[in-house]
Amino acid sequence: MPSPLKAPFAPDVLRAVADTFGTPTYVYHAPTIRDRIGRLRRHLTGVPVRLLYAMKANSHPAILQIMREEGLGLDAVSPGELLLALRLGVEPDRILFSANNMTDEEMHLAHERGVLLNIGELSRLEKFGRAYPGSAVCVRLNPQVGAGHHEHVVTAGARSKFGIPVEQTDRIRALADAHGLRIVGLHHHIGSGILHTAHFWEAARVLLEAARPFEGLRFINLGGGLGIPYRPDEAPLDLDNFRDALMAPLRSFHAEYGAPALTFWFEPGRYLVGEAGVLLVRVNTLKSANGRTFAGTDSGMGHLVRPAMYGAYHALYNLSNPDGALQPYDVTGNICESGDLFARDRPVQTIREGDILAILDAGAYGMSMASEYNLRPLPAEVLVTEDGPRLIRARRTPEDLADALLATLPRT
């Protein structure tokens, strides 16, 4: 059987989007995003919980507006993300600034805007203390437990650049005492695309133990990393098991810590938007060579880099020929790189030149990681709501790209 087209994305709606707005186009389904927020909230009960959306997953303002309407805060990891959140009207106290290898300029920007910093290096913590003695701060720990769908997204453990090793909590407290810093939060994030609850609990146990000597904590941030099933043989994250593994220990810690105002934070990104997005591409070339059939499209790794970067799997569905017989294809892009492909030897309904393919589960780390490599314009973006599809970002033309570059030349 072909990869199923998930319920929110009716084939006729996606074909209409392609006809109206052209390809390549990212399409996002707002009701699915709201549904995932609701599902997660229903499983995080029994202790005070706050959700922050990890902006890096998809930072389109229309997506961020949905998060704001649903009452989520934002996890920002760069000055650009921080300024976008503020300009959208998100209150500073609903943003956590977690830049990695933070510069002095970034530190000053966040603090001067009233945004709490999440610091994962002892040297930066000392610089912050010298610049802003007596200030509140969050500290990111490395619990020495990492997980993720690929080694490049494992963000804790012995080889990770992220966080202060949990064994160095005494040095953290000494620096805080030296500068009068108020450590109001502890944070960890162990990786991305995790589907097994045991990984979350193993790291959470370390973080909770590390938190006990710290007085005056307002929150413990357990990070994000909740995965989605990309492959047909993958089961979705069992939220019942996730709740059962985490909520009882969190309730016990909350009671033992003796601070009723203590809140537990989570930072989902992919889980909220990944399944809510597809990338529509058009097949413009069919070529048989060396026993393979290549289906070349009008998109490529510049628009969805995950298959090239991580070997990631994204299901494919032929919207133009949904009942066609399955045949194996190498579905490739239009970038001058041998690694530019969406799938290798993938059974897809018979593909013809001109067919529209839907690349599924592309709502997270798709457009947010896209580039204009080879001077290929970025895709358009469309948001589907209860009122139907609407364009939320127009596709730039090659002329637009050329004009923008020529405008950088000195005037003579």
The CATH superfamily label of the largest domain reads Alanine racemase
- Overall mean pLDDT: 91
Q: Treating each run of at least 4 consecutive H or I residues as one helix, how many helices?
A: 12
How many E strands? 18
Provide a compact summary of the structure.
The protein has helices spanning 11-21, 30-42, 61-69, 79-87, 104-112, 122-131, 169-179, 197-211, 239-257, 270-273, 306-310, 398-406; strands at 25-29, 49-54, 73-76, 95-97, 116-119, 136-142, 164-165, 182-187, 219-221, 263-266, 277-289, 292-297, 316-318, 326-332, 341-349, 356-359, 380-385, 388-393. It has 412 residues and is α/β, with parallel strands linked by helices.
Write the layout of secondary structure elements.
Elements: H1 11-21, E1 25-29, H2 30-42, E2 49-54, H3 61-69, E3 73-76, H4 79-87, E4 95-97, H5 104-112, E5 116-119, H6 122-131, E6 136-142, E7 164-165, H7 169-179, E8 182-187, H8 197-211, E9 219-221, H9 239-257, E10 263-266, H10 270-273, E11 277-289, E12 292-297, H11 306-310, E13 316-318, E14 326-332, E15 341-349, E16 356-359, E17 380-385, E18 388-393, H12 398-406
Parallel strand pairs: 1-17, 2-3, 2-10, 3-4, 4-5, 5-6, 6-7, 6-8, 8-9, 9-10, 12-14
Antiparallel strand pairs: 1-11, 11-12, 11-16, 13-16, 14-15, 17-18
Helix pairs in contact: 6-7, 8-9
